[in-house]
Please model this.
Amino acid sequence: MAVNKEPILKKCAALGISPMVMGVGKETKRKPKANVRKKESEYAKQLKEKQKLKFIYGVLEKQFRHIYERAEKMEGQAGANLLTLLEERLDNVVFRMGLATTRREARQLVSHGHFNVNGSRVDIPSYRVKVGDVVSLRENSKKSEKFKEIVEDTDKRLVPSWLDKDKENLTATVVRAPAKEDLDYEVEEHMIVELYSK
Model:
């Protein structure tokens, strides 16, 4: 499996994303580069928006293309559907629940089999949760010092309204499909649709 080893803060600066979205560090102000091109082409803007989503969710090109094709076949706008499909990934849900400090860590914890969906062990980070699904930390994992540390570190993280989190039992129920309004970053998804429709 390919792994993105690019420095997170450097990539965040290049794509104009706050490191807080990635679950890393504190908000920092960077000086603008002196040698920046003033005008970006339309294609460059579209590509940047696609790269931003791929980077945030840790998805490679082939997988992202597959998700986009599925979003296009769904009812409604392809861009909004794309965001919904990315948010419904199990690794993202674990991150949103506050049971991982970053999405990269969430992906690893899911693949190591620490989580159940509706009582069954799921170790596929790209598994898509549906409305009514209950995501929970496995009983053996609850005793782990690692998860106690993670829960302390992410205690103040806001849980999106599409998830109903039970802090005591470390579970979350998907109450509705995620929407663009629930996101904690800015994205112009219509540009990605334009890029793929060329």
